[in-house]
């Protein structure tokens, strides 16, 4: 089975490339060239039948991903499907199922069946459910889970293949150690067996599965910083260099790949981090969690993340992974998903406008016209969260004179300006 990258390199424009081109307002040939060189990926597992393809890359609109999934303590299939619907309704371009509790296969199967956006996973989470301790995992168990998820239709997978034995001593110097769940699992496995990362040493086996189903790899940052004190340290950048090496292997075998990034990063270090990733990873799309620009926004981490995400996207990040108000505190519910999606849609959109994406700016200009003409219905239609805008307007206004309750007709600047 050929991948999107192989088709692109053979000069073939696929239906997925054509759909992405239309949604981005560019030519299909432009998308083909970007996919061919690895600057854009189109996550599209051949078994995900109802998928509406998207393109992820710096040359396109910045995308956002929403994480959902149950835990061993909370949530079920119906609740996760509600989260999926909320995420897609309010603009998530992709969704990751990070389930770690019961019925993982059933939940994922229903999510893929009901999702029009690409679905991602972290297979090691499910693999750990097969054993008592992470270090008891076997190679065949790890790859068996990857193969099963591939058959189900997962479009992109986070694999922590770049965290190596030699990196572990570097993490000991940190304030918060290894905060990536997948990274911590792999670190414990390596330390127990005194062996190199099995995904690194068996990377060709992983690529073979990806090629059969056209799965995009999302190379995970197991050593992402979990606090400002650990940002941009030797551990983080040592792993990033290894991810660059693996990116080259992906491209050589026509496997689409993006690179995951931090994490907690001071605002002034974001641009440097993005430039370093682009340099070390051959221009592969960068997919970041946040980054959160402060450690003290508990309960409001979606705001701290959106602030960092705006800067990251402006500097060239291709996709933002949302953070919800529950980050560091608990499993998100439906409202948390909504808040996280909207916060990061604002961040991505603001960056797109700043980067000169004409398709994005058109919506802002239309909103300005609707405001000046007091066309409230048009404003609700154009707003990123039109439901919330309508709710606030109706709560605060009687709707009789067409003006909001902030000023009323006597003090309304736009009315006075028109007069």
What labels describe this entry?
two-stranded antiparallel sheet; 2 domains; 10 strands; TIM Barrel; 50% helix; eight-stranded parallel beta barrel; 419 residues; alpha/beta; globular
How much strand content do the residues show?
5-15%
CATH architecture of the largest domain: Alpha-Beta Barrel
Let me know the CATH homologous superfamily of the largest domain.
Answer: Radical SAM ThiC family, central domain
Total discrete domains: 2
Kindly report how far apart the N and C termini lie.
66 Å
Chain oligomer state: single chain
Overall geometry: globular
Q: Enumerate how many helices there are, as a single number.
A: 20
CATH T-level fold name of the largest domain:
TIM Barrel
The helix-strand sequence is HHHEEEHEHEHHEHHHHEHEHEHEHHHHHH
Radius of gyration from the alpha-carbon trace, in angstroms: 22 Å
Strand order of the largest sheet: 3-4-5-6-7-8-9-10
Q: Biggest sheet: strands, sense, closure?
A: 8 strands, parallel, barrel
Overall CATH class of the largest domain: Alpha Beta
Question: What is the structural class?
Answer: alpha/beta
Mean pLDDT: 95
Helical fraction equals 40-55%
Q: How many runs of DSSP E, i.e. beta strands?
A: 10
Poorly predicted segments: none
């Amino acid at each position: 089975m050929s991948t999107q990258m192989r088709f692109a390199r053979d000069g073939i424009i696929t239906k997925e490339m054509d759909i992405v081109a239309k949604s981005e307002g560019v030519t299909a040939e432009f998308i083909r060239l970007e996919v061919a060189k690895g600057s854009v990926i189109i996550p599209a597992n051949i078994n995900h039948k109802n998928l509406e393809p998207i393109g992820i890359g710096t040359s396109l609109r910045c995308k956002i991903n929403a994480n959902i999934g149950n835990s061993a303590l909370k949530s079920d299939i119906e609740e996760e499907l509600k989260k999926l619907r909320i995420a897609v309704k309010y603009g998530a371009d992709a969704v990751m199922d990070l389930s770690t509790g019961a019925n993982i296969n059933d939940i994922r199967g229903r999510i893929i069946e009901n999702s029009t956006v690409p679905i991602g996973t972290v297979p090691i989470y499910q693999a750990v459910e097969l054993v008592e301790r992470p270090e008891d995992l076997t190679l065949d168990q790890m790859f068996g889970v990857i193969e099963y998820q591939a058959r189900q239709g997962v479009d992109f997978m986070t694999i922590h293949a770049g965290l190596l034995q030699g990196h572990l001593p570097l993490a000991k110097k940190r304030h918060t150690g290894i905060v990536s769940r997948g990274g911590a699992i792999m670190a414990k496995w390596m330390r127990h067996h005194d062996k190199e990362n099995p995904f690194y040493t068996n990377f060709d086996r992983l690529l073979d599965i990806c090629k059969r189903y056209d799965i995009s790899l999302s190379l995970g940052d197991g050593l992402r910083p979990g606090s400002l004190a650990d940002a941009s340290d030797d551990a983080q950048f040592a792993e990033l260099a290894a991810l660059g090496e693996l990116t080259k292997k992906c491209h050589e075998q026509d496997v689409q790949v993006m690179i995951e990034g931090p994490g907690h990063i001071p605002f002034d270090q974001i641009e440097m981090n993005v430039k370093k990733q682009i340099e070390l990873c051959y221009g592969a799309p960068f997919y970041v969690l946040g980054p959160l620009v402060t450690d003290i926004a508990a309960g409001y981490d979606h705001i701290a993340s959106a602030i960092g995400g705006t800067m990251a996207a402006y500097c060239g990040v291709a996709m933002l992974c949302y953070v919800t108000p529950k980050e560091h505190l608990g499993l998100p519910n439906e409202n948390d998903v909504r808040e996280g999606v909207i916060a990061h849609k604002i961040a991505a959109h603001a960056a797109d406008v700043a980067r000169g994406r004409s398709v994005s700016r058109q919506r802002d200009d239309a909103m300005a016209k609707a405001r000046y003409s007091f066309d409230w219905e048009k404003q609700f239609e154009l707003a990123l969260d039109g439901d919330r805008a309508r709710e606030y307007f109706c709560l605060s206004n009687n709707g009789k004179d067409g003006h909001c309750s902030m000023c009323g007709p006597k003090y309304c600047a736009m009315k006075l300006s028109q007069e």
